[in-house]
Input
Amino acid sequence: MFWLRVNPQNVPSNMRLFLHSILAAAAGITIGFVLFPSEASLIGVFLIAIAQGTTVHALLERNRDEVWNQPISTFRANIRLASGLFVVFLGILFTYAASTLLVPVEQLLPLFDRQIGNFGGHSITDVAFDNFSGILLHNGLVAAACFLFSLLYQHGGMLLVLGWNASVWGVVFAYIARTAPDAGSTGPVVYFLKSFLCIFPHLFLEALAYVLVAMGGVFLSKALGKYKVDSSRFAQVGGAILRVVLTSMALLVLASAVEAVLAPTLVEWLF
Output
């Protein structure tokens, strides 16, 4: 595989995973725009998911080997997996953000039409942060989609959902920085960095929650295909899945509270 030649015992460091993620995202964005310009905003995400498939498969295989064959706790093995997936997520996010900040303005809509939606032409101060219950409902639906896609399509489904969310987060606030009427005094890069500082606390918690719930979906899918439901191995995996999903739900509750309270406060302070 061009993108990554590894075995489960030799998964690259998080820094290399981050660089691989940036390269895969940059290639997906570019190829999507060149070959499929009318649907570049969607095709790019699919190409990224395909390119990152080997990487995520290697991470999952390492996790399986650590859980069953090495003297390492399941908790530590899952933390290593979650951190690797989160680094991949960040690489995609920052590549989309950098692309949005760097490409000519007239190319932004053709490249990122689906991600931008109706956010263009507004200041960060115009972004309406929902209340806690509304945010939690939305985040819960996204988490459910992460779990379902991962359950049905394993690491491919995980990558599609995480890649899509990373692309939206990367594009939207960078696009606001390019088009906001009050961005002129500082420039789009500084405006984006200030905006990102406002959303990073809840973004970090949400993204980690989505990574964990997607891991739960992949674990369950693999367990259903490998073990009998009444076996001791399935019970052990099921317990780990339950702990991972419950942790992700707790993170979503915390993320929703942070977004409802802290994000608008930071916007008020910085803008």
